[in-house]
Write a structure and sequence with these properties.
Layout: H1 2-23, E1 30-35, E2 41-46, E3 50-53, E4 59-62, E5 69-70, E6 81-85, E7 92-93, E8 105-107, E9 114-115, E10 136-137, E11 149-151, E12 158-159, E13 171-173, E14 180-181, E15 193-195, E16 202-203, E17 216-218, E18 225-226, E19 239-241, H2 259-333, H3 338-349, H4 359-382, E20 385-391, E21 394-400, E22 410-411
Parallel strand pairs: 3-5, 4-6, 5-7, 6-8, 7-9, 10-12, 11-13, 12-14, 14-16, 15-17, 16-18, 17-19
Antiparallel strand pairs: 1-2, 2-3, 20-21, 20-22
Helix pairs in contact: 2-3, 2-4
């Protein structure tokens, strides 16, 4: 029974915890309705802040601050809405959010970082101020609107496929950081003259296709990629300004390079060539300096080597003379060894004069000769001799290296 009561208590505890979590506000989503004219409402998923449905709204609408995302197709097909003011809390306008609606005016805050494809396509927008927070104008996001002029923010780097096609655009200010425009982005618009910024590197095909009134277009000289066909149904096109290189047939009209732009290109090339030459000259100068330094070092080394060699030869010659002088001294001191010593002296003399090619051989021979002289000298200086000394009838024998008779005695003859 006790075990049963304990089990029931445990089950009751976990049930209580589960119900507590169900009551927490972050554990569930709720839909909140906000009024939007003519007794209609738009719904917002909370706490996520996603505006789900505003298809029945009408007139001018100020979106509540709780909204962070305009959901996919939230106002799609709404033919009663005219104006929308977004809150600063808004970050995202999802795909086709206002597509095919009667929206004619909209204020987009800088908090918006993403406008998905088809977001405002086929609306009645006549103008739009894009926020500085956008990096991309997405696929067909403003297609089929009534926009006649636009300024692309500096934050935008890419305009995707068909972004402004089928609009009334005739005037545009490109951002300075725009690097890529997708295919048919401005197809079937109202441009007469177009000047693309230097920042653009990539253009898709038919970016300005099917514009019958387009007369001239200026491409940046640093353009790297362009899709083909480049144009289509551009019947009035008669001038293309471009100093770059693309295969023949890329453009329907042969491009011309304005003299002022060619001058800039030539000046840049000249500066580049001068910089390259200066770099090459520096490399050559550094190489010559290195070669000169090595030559000096080699010369110094050779000079030092020659001087050292001369010292060695002089030392060998001096050793040769010194040994001959030692032999002469020994001949005088030990006449009995004259023949042997003079033979050794002649052998040393016959070695000849020391040169750079034979000084080591002579040095080795002198070393051996010196050993022989040392041996002879040591033997002669350590050989003991016995003499007989007499004084009247007295006789003494004296044995020494240099024996001498005592005082009063004479060497016996």
């Amino acid at each position: 029974m006790k075990h049963l009561i304990g089990r029931k208590s445990l089950i009751s505890f976990f049930c209580a915890i589960f119900l507590l979590f169900l009551d927490l506000p972050f554990a569930k989503a709720d839909t909140v309705n906000f009024p939007c004219g003519a007794n209609q409402t738009y719904s917002v998923l909370m706490p996520q802040g996603v505006l789900l449905d505003g298809k029945k709204c009408s007139g001018s609408l100020i979106i509540d601050q709780s909204v962070k995302i305009i959901g996919t197709r939230a106002f799609n097909g709404n033919y009663n809405i005219t104006e929308v003011t977004f809150p600063n809390s808004l970050t995202t306008i999802d795909e086709a959010a206002f597509q095919s609606s009667s929206l004619s005016s909209v204020l987009i805050p800088n908090s918006v970082t993403s406008i998905s494809r088809y977001a405002f396509s086929f609306t009645k927008l006549t103008s739009i101020n894009l926020p500085n927070s956008l990096s991309t104008i997405t696929d067909q996001s403003f297609r089929g609107t009534l926009i006649s002029s636009i300024t692309i923010p500096d934050s935008v780097r890419v305009i995707e496929l068909g972004a402004f096609m089928d609009t009334q655009l005739s005037s545009i200010v490109f951002g300075k950081n725009l690097s890529e425009i997708g295919s048919i982005a401005f197809q079937n618009t109202k441009f007469v003259n177009v000047i693309l910024p230097d920042s653009i590197k990539v253009l898709g095909s038919k970016v300005f296709g099917n514009i019958p009134n387009l007369q001239s277009i200026s491409y940046p000289d640093g353009l790297q990629t362009i899709g083909t066909p480049t144009f289509e149904s551009n019947y009035s096109l008669n001038k293309i300004l471009f100093c770059g290189n693309f295969p023949m047939g890329t453009f329907p009209v042969s491009p011309t390079c304005p003299p002022e732009r060619q001058a800039i290109i030539d000046a840049a090339k000249a500066a580049s060539d001068a910089a390259a030459k200066a770099a090459a000259d520096k490399v050559a100068a550094d190489a010559k300096a290195a070669a000169d330094l090595k030559a000096r070092q080699d010369a110094e080394f050779k000079a030092n080597s020659d001087a050292a060699l001369k010292v060695l030869i002089d030392q060998v010659s001096a050793s040769k003379e010194e040994l001959v002088m030692r032999i002469n001294t020994l001949v005088k001191k030990f006449p009995s060894e004259t023949k042997k010593l003079l033979s050794l002296s002649q052998a040393i003399t016959n070695l000849g004069i020391a040169t750079s090619t034979n000084y080591k051989v002579i040095e080795a021979e002198l070393y051996r000769a010196s050993g022989q002289i040392d041996y002879i000298e040591e033997r002669l200086l350590t050989t003991r001799t016995t003499i007989t000394c007499v004084k009247g009838k007295l006789t003494k024998k004296v044995t020494a290296v240099k024996p001498k008779c005592p005082a009063g005695y004479k060497v016996k003859k």
